[in-house]
Amino acid sequence: MRALVQRVTAGSVRIGGETVGAIGPGLVILVGVTHTDTLREVRFVAEKCVNLRIFEDAAGKMNRSLLEVGGSALVVSQFTLYGDCTAGRRPSFSEAARPETAIPLYEAFIEQVRSSGVTVATGRFGADMQLEIHNDGPVTLMVESK
Questions:
Q1: Alpha-carbon gap, residue 79 to 103, rounded angstroms
Q2: At the N or C end, where does the chain have fewer CB atoms within 10 A?
């Protein structure tokens, strides 16, 4: 499992012109699932995301987590995180899990983040989505289970 984590001042996702999810300060988390992922990877990546110390403390040092600052999370499925661009000009997505594997793990990830006490907004798996991300810093990190 991969999660591209962005610290934001705000984020939203629109589908067909309708805003389906929006947050203020917090994290936009783009989640990719591969064939071998299980609930173990879900728990690891979700726990890592909500506890990353990437928010500033009173001294201006990145020393506080999403949980500590009371931020929200916008979680969006992103199979292209498993795109392989090493050969040719068209990425291969063979490492991305098929929907029947990915959807339950994506939904479990959302629930794992929610169960930690974070308010979560989401996109819609497989939909054509437009994201608006106000990256703060900018701070962008890749969290991987392996």
A1: 11
A2: C
CA dist 56 and 2 (Å) reads 24
DSSP one-letter code for 1: -
pLDDT in tens, the chain (146 residues): 999 999 999 999 999 999 999 999 999 999 999 999 999 999 999 999 999 999 999 999 999 999 999 999 999 999 999 999 999 999 999 999 999 999 999 999 999 999 999 999 999 999 999 999 999 999 999 999 97
3-state helix, strand, coil in the chain (%, to 5): 25, 40, 30
Which of the residues are catalytic? Answer: 78-80
CATH of the domain at 104: 3.50.80.10
Q: Give the domain range for residue 34.
A: 2-144
Number of domains, the chain = 1
